[in-house]
Amino acid sequence: MTQAALEHENKLIAQEYKELLRISYQTLTDDDKKLIRSAFEVAVDAHKEQRRKSGEAYVFHPIAVAKIVASEIGLDAVSIASALLHDVVEDTPYTLDDIDRMFGETVARIVDGLTKISHLKKDMNISQQAENFRKMLLTLNDDVRVIIIKIADRYHNMLTMDSMPEHKQVKIASETLYIYAPLAHRIGLYNIKTELEDLSLKYTEPEVYYDIKSKIEESKEEQQAYIDAFSDIIDNSLKQEGLNYYIKGRMKSIFSMRRKMKTQNVGFDEIYDKFAIRIIYKSDAKNEKFLAWKIYSIVTDHFTPNPVRLRDWISSPKSTGYEALHITVMGPKGKWVEVQIRSERMHEIAEKGYAAHFKYKHGDQKEQGIEVWLNKLQEALENSNSNAVDFVEEFKLNLYSKEIFVFTPKGELKSLPKGATPLDFSFNIHTEVGMRTRGAKVNGKLVPLNTTLHSGDQVEIITSEQAKPNQNWLDYATTARARAKIKSVLREEKKSVAEEGKEILRRKLKSQKITLNEDSINKMVTFFKLKTSLDLFYRVGIGSIDNQMIRDFASSYSNAFISFFKNRIRRTPAPEDIDKEEITSKYDLLVFGKEEEKLDYKLSQCCNPIPGDDVFGFVSVSEGIKVHKKNCPNAISLQSNYAYRIISAKWVDSTQEEFKADIQLTGIDNLGLVSEITEVISDNMHVNMRNLNFSTDGGTFTGRITVVVKNKGILNKLTENLQQINGIDKVTRL
C-alpha cells in the first residue's frame, strides 16, 4: 500500500473517531472520553496488520460496531469502549489480562464474554448450534451488554456481507433470523431487529427480497400523497388545540410484508396495512397521557376507528418498555391505516430500546433502571438445565409471543405471554407459589389449571402445603420458566423414588442370593433394555419391574454357565453412560385426547412421525386415526379445514404410564364405610381417585371407584386392603 493511501486511511480512521464521539446518544463526561480514546488507540494498534475481506483496514469494523452501540442503541462509555475492543483478545497479541489492567474489570468481563461467543464453533448441526446459543445466552449472567454488543457486531457483519461466498451468507443470515433478530426484539431494539430481518431475507430469499423492495420503491410517491391527504384532514384540528407535533409515515419492513404474504396467502397488492402513520408530539411528563388521548379523539372525529384494533400501550407498557397508542382507522380512499400516537420520549424508547428509557431518569434511578431491565432478561434465560434445543426453542417461544395482561387479586398488573394458563401465572408470581398450586380462580370462578387466560382476567391462585407438581403440569404450563421449574421438581421426585427402588432391589436380589453391585446392575439394565441405572431403580420403585421380572432376571443371571455360552453367541454390549444422573423416557406409546385413551392408529406416510415427536391425530374417513407431526406440511390445511376431526395425541413412556382401573365393591351398608374406603385408597396407599359412585339398597351397598395406578401390583394390593374392611363382601376389577 502506498504512503499516500496509508495517510488517507489514517485520516479516515481519525474522522471516524470524531464522528463516534459526536453521535453518542448518552452525554459523555471527560472521563468517558478518555476511556473511549484509549480503547480506540488500543484497537487501532492491535488490528494494524489486519484487513477485512473487502480489503479495507480491519479497525473500521470495531469502530462501526461502536458507532452502532453509541448512537443506534445509545449505550454508555463502557459499552462503547468494549465494542471497540471486542475482537482484540481473539485476533491479536493482546490478552484479557492486558485489557483488565488497562480498562478495568467490567470492560474485561464484557470483552471476555464476546470472545467466548465468537469461539463457539460455527459448522455444526442444529443441536450443536443450539448449544452455542445457549452458552451465549448464559453469558448474560455476566453482563447483558455482551449480548447487545454482539447484536451490533452481527448487524455490522450483515451490512458488509457482500464480499463473502454465498454459502456463508446464507448460513449467517439464517442464524441471524434464528436467534439475533428475536434477541434484538426481546431487548426492545425494534429498529435493529427490523434491519436484521430484512438483511437476512436479502440473502436467504434474494428474489423475493428484491421483488418486494422494488414494489415498495414504486409506491413511494403514492404513499407520500396518501400521508399528505391524511395529514391535511386532521392538521387544522390539531393546530387549533395548540399541539406541537409532526406526522411521519413508516413503511412496514420487507420481512414483515413477506411474512404477511405467506401467512395470509396474498400478493403484495392485497396487503391492506402496508404502512403506518405516526403522530409524534412534544409534551412534558405531566400531560403526556392526556395529550395522547386528546390526539386520539381528534383522529377518530375525522376517521372511523376499527374498534377491535385499539392497542393501548400507554396505560400498560410492554415488558420491553414500549409505550404508544395504536389505532386502525378507515383513512382517505377507504383504506385501513394504522395510526401510532406517541410522545417524543415514547418515540425515543421505541427507536432505542431501554437506553432511552433511563435517559429521562437521573443518578441512582438511572443505574437501577438498567438493573431492573437486566433482571427481566435474566428471567427468560434463568433455567439452563434443559437440553439445548428445547432451551433455544422455549427461549424463542418467550421472545416472539404476544403479551396478555392479567390482574392479581389485589389488582396488580402482570404481563404473560399469549396462551398462558393459571399455572404460568402462579410461577410468574413466585416459584414457591407455583410449586404449591392447588387450584385457581379466574374472575372469581374455579377453573382447571390448563384454562387459557385472556387479557383483563383477574387470577387468584389457591395454594396448599400438600400440593406438588405432577407430570400433567407439563401439559398445562406454557412459559419456559414454569416448565423448567416443574421439570426440575419432577426430576428430583423421580430420583427419590429411584433411591427407594434401589433399596427394594437390594433386598429382592439378596433373597435370590445375588449382590447388588456394578456387574449385576449393568446386566439388569441390559436385561430390561433400559438406558441408565437410575432408570432401573426408578422402575423398581414404581413397581413396573415387579417380583416376577426380577426372578426371571435372577434365574438367567444365576445360570452363569448357560448364559456364558449364550453370550458367546450374541454379545450384548452394556450401554454407555449407564451411571448418568437421569431417568430417561422410552417413548413407545401413543395416547389420545384429554383422557389419554389408547386407540388404534396409523402413522401417516407424509411426515413419518417417530416416538417422542409432537403429534396430533386426524380422524380420517376410511383409515381410522392417522397420526401426523405437528409441523407436517399438511398439518395446517388439515387443522384449518377439518378442525372438528383433530384429536390431540402425545407419546408417553409405557413403563412410567399410569392407567385407570374401575373397581366394584359390594357389601353391607354401615355408618362411616365410605370414609373408611377412601381412607384406605387416598391416605394409606396414596392412590388417586377420579370417580366415586355409591348406592345403597335395602341395607346392602354397591360402589364403583375409578382409580389411577402405576401398575397391576399396586392395584392388587389395593383390592386386598379394601377386602379387609369390615362389611365389605366382594371387591372386583371391572
Name the CATH superfamily classification of the largest domain.
Hypothetical protein af1432
CATH architecture descriptor text of the largest domain: Orthogonal Bundle
Highest CATH level, the class of the largest domain: Mainly Alpha
Number of helices, where a helix is a run of at least 4 consecutive DSSP H or I residues: 30
From the 3D structure, determine the CATH topology of the largest domain: Hypothetical protein af1432
Q: Can you give the mean pLDDT?
A: 81
Strand content: 15-25%
Instruction: Profile the largest sheet.
Output: 5 strands, mixed
Oligomer: single chain
Write a compact overview of the structure shown.
It contains 30 helices and 19 strands. It has 734 residues and is an alpha+beta fold. The N and C termini lie far apart (92 Å).
What can you tell me about this protein's structure?
- With 734 residues, the protein is α+β, with helices and mostly antiparallel strands.
- The chain folds into six domains: 3-204, Orthogonal Bundle (Hypothetical protein af1432); 220-360, Beta Polymerase, domain 2 (2-Layer Sandwich); 371-486, Roll (Ubiquitin-like (UB roll)); 489-560, no CATH class; 589-652, no CATH class; 659-733, ACT domain (Alpha-Beta Plaits).
- The chain is 51% helix and 16% strand.
- The chain contains 30 helices and 19 strands.
- Strands 1-2-5-4-3 form a five-stranded mixed beta sheet. Strands 11-15-13-14-12 form a five-stranded mixed beta sheet. Strands 17-18-16-19 form a four-stranded antiparallel beta sheet, covered by helices on one side.
- Strand 13 (615-620) and strand 14 form a beta hairpin.
- The longest helix is centred in the C-terminal third of the chain and has 32 residues, at 480-511.
- The model has no long low-confidence stretch (mean pLDDT 81).
